[in-house]
């Protein structure tokens, strides 16, 4: 296996650090638009299987050329979701398999955005499935932590815990705080605004996919690991589009534990139009208000050593157990920031995202997982993946509700 | 009397429209940095006493030169408070009297900003009082509605209603809504942020001036005219600096009826640093976050025809009445936006600000009001001013509490 990671930001660098401890590949190319960033990531692992390169992720041709130059067999896309399609297309053009952690972006319904879906997350990738199948190549989409591990949990529940699933509800929350800042998000605020203010998508078996108001249906979910109750709201997320394709469930939702304070901040930014990406004129400059919000807040990638707390990703499944009686379980994965900083020098949220595609690559290298076309994580047997996580030293758990 | 209005924005234009119906002056020059804006204001009144001019309000020399060119006797400053000092200095240099509606800006105490005052509102103007006195010229500062009419009310209460004043509390609120916008302030958001997030100043007779936390001591005040209860908080305002100089009161405060929603918006902007005027780098541009907030919101000066509701400015006075028994009265002035739009084509808040300096100019022209030095509205007899307001068709009222 010869891997190309596109993007040497937080997640790409963490994935590189995790991969450096494994031996399932012979070559690992780390590419970024900023070559010096890729070089720093490669220098940090000090391992001659690793090579830095420069790439323009907005160009499928550039991605394909880099694949060919290094005989790449697997492309791991670790850049901003705006570049999903060119990296995805570049991999196929070069005859490589492909993995990503976020899917092609949605576009809201033109006239009824808070009730009907428009172009859904991943639609543009699933449209290309016949081309991937006929080329005999695999695109494993949404294989970070959420989507990713959360989808694996859903498949595990369907195979081993339930005879009937009424609802799969992803619930993500944490208690990370950044010391010394009045307000400092633990994840890219640009992306958080994008996913939280897009119309959230919900799946129901007899209705199909539909949308709701942003930040709607608040509920308080009690997270494990000492995190405790956090206010969660509907958010647009890939699991809702992926899980129903392979797992039989009455309803699929994603609720994000933003907490009351962050929800209020997002509502205010939206009310004032400060979430907008459309440039406004300010003096002689033209700037996007959302970029200004990102510029005034501290960069979360640089805050790992000032953070304290844990992040939790998990899947709440409700239905009938194997014995036909009502059952509800929360399958989850916790990362303590202190642990991930000490062990890998990576912030918890970033590390928790990055470990999953490396586990998946190892299963693909061994042939434990295989397939062609455009497939989600729940298209594969969950057990070897969950076993591998334990082997990587980062266990998952089950809580009966 | 030959008047120069500096600034043809909302207030300057409204003042021009109000003055056009009066005959106490022979010349009225309307000047703006943008000559075309001044020309539009002059064209709207179609009266040959009015002339448009261009001026740079940041230059005392430019203001003085324009005064000399038109033999100006009185300068009315209607620009942003950042330009108070050059307009104030330019008027004195040219031997003209001066009026403004906001005073020179404050600077917080360097080490203890939320308990002690630093440079206070108007300090830099009062320091120049000896120069105005020796030149025999008058600077009548803070003669809009608040400060302005609110100060006149305090003087009226001291002269005619009370034998002892325990507290003068300015209370400003309204129920203006802008149709078709989720969030649209009815007054300049830049100035609102400035006054609401600066440390508010409070006066107590035995303690002097001191400061508090922004937006502190929320109270619900029941406004008249059908407005009803609105949440009010401490805000930095000129009255607190002016009233104690001429009126004997135990305590002076200013509380602004921002309402819960606006208070939350201001708190969020502050928490994120979006209230800052310090430029941040965004791509290749450098912008001040507060300017971006102003740029994404609709311009309140253009929204008069979409607004509905009333604005109320008033002074709550508590103490002992002339008969020595406890008394509490609210002296107030209401403007209905529908009335001000129909009668003058001006939005209510802007019109309510603009009428007061025109009344004051008329009293100065008649010699009813006279003086030298730097004086607040409460330095003059309140009765002729309040009578004149009624003559202008915009009555004030008293409510016993």
Q: How is this structure best described in words?
A:
Chains A, B: InterPro entries: NAD(P)-bd_dom_sf (IPR036291), Sacchrp_dh-like_C (IPR032095), Sacchrp_dh_NADP-bd (IPR005097). Chains A, B: One of its GO terms (molecular function) is ATP binding. Chains A, B: It holds the Pfam family Sacchrp_dh_NADP. Chains A, B: Keywords: ATP-binding, Nucleotide-binding. 2 copies of one chain form a homodimer. Chain A has 14 helices and 20 strands. Chain A is α/β, with parallel strands linked by helices and 401 residues long. Chain A has 2 domains: 99 residues, Rossmann fold (3-Layer(aba) Sandwich); 199 residues, Dihydrodipicolinate Reductase, domain 2 (2-Layer Sandwich). In chain A, strands 7, 9, 10, 11, 12, 13, 17, 18 and 20 form a 9-stranded mixed sheet that branches. In chain A, helix 1 packs across helix 13, helix 3 crosses helix 4 and helix 13 packs across helix 14. The longest helix of chain A has 19 residues.
């Amino acid at each position: 296996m010869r891997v190309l990671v596109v993007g040497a930001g937080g997640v790409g660098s963490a994935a590189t650090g995790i991969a450096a401890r494994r031996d399932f590949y012979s070559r690992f190319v780390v590419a970024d638009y900023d070559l010096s960033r890729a070089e720093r990531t490669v220098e940090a692992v000090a391992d001659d299987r690793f090579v830095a390169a420069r790439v323009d992720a907005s160009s499928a041709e550039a991605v394909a050329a880099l694949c060919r130059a290094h005989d790449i067999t697997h492309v791991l896309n670790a850049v901003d979701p705006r570049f999903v399609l060119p990296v995805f297309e570049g991999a196929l053009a070069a005859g490589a398999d492909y993995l990503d952690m976020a899917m092609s972006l949605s576009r809201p319904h033109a006239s009824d955005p808070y009730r009907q879906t428009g172009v859904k997350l991943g639609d543009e990738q699933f449209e290309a499935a016949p081309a991937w199948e006929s080329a005999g190549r695999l695109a494993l989409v949404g294989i970070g932590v959420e989507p990713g591990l959360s989808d694996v949990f859903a498949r595990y529940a369907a195979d081993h815990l339930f005879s009937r699933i009424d609802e799969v509800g992803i619930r993500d929350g944490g208690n990370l705080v950044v010391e010394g800042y009045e307000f400092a998000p633990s994840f890219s605020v640009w992306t958080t605004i994008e996913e939280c203010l897009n119309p959230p998508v919900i799946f129901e078996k007899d209705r199909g996919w539909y949308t709701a108001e942003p930040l709607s249906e608040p509920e308080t979910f009690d997270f494990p690991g000492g995190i405790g109750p956090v206010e969660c709201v509907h958010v647009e997320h890939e699991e809702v589009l992926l899980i129903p394709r392979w797992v039989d469930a009455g309803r699929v939702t994603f609720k994000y534990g933003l907490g009351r304070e962050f929800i209020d901040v997002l509502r205010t930014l939206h009310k004032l139009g400060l979430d907008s990406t459309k440039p406004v004129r300010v003096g002689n400059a033209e700037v996007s208000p959302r970029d200004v919000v990102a510029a005034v807040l501290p960069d979360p990638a640089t805050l790992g050593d000032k953070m304290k707390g844990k992040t939790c990703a998990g899947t709440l499944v409700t239905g009938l157990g194997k014995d036909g009686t009502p059952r509800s379980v929360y399958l989850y994965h916790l990362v303590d920031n202190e642990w991930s900083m000490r062990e890998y020098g990576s912030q918890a949220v970033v590390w928790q995202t990055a470990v999953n595609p490396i586990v998946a690559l190892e299963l693909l290298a061994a042939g434990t997982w295989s397939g062609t076309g455009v497939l989600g994580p729940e298209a594969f047997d969950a057990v070897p993946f969950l076993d591998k996580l334990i082997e990587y030293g980062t266990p998952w758990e089950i809580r009966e509700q």
